[in-house]
Specification:
5 helices, single chain, four-stranded antiparallel β-sheet, alpha+beta
Amino acid sequence: MKYCAFLRGINVKGTNMKMAEVCEVFTKAGMKDIFSVLASGNIIFSSDQKADNLKLILEQAMSEHFKYEAFLFVKSQDEIESFLNSNPFAKNEDLHVYTFIGNKDVESVLMKEFEAALKTENEDAKIVNGNFYWQVPKGNTLDSTFGKILGRKNLKDKFTSRNINTFEKILKKN
């Protein structure tokens, strides 16, 4: 089965790695047909194992190889298509749309955080098909109150985020 692993917190704050080396780690961990999409930690691969097992195997392999506490989320091609096709926001050149990939029910935690945050104009969030989507004006992602959640240490094992355009690129590579 085809999967994509979404790595959290790489190539930011001193955790730097080359995607070719990450692909080598996946190969040594028994994955097949491996390649990366962008430098932000999106690794497409094939395996006969279930996503939950793959998460554990790959987090351990990444942690051991790169000497850091790795967090990643494994999603099937169908789930990736759902992330893209369920996007509730219209394309707008002035706005970014992010999708949050994570543990089961993380969308509820994120919505509570969003509802409690101060918002900028045109900032919005919605849950569609169990997926959390966040729309924010370009240039405000890390400055917005909700955007600060992205770096919270107590949530690092719960989710990662990607711009909606990343899913288009992943599906084109599949």
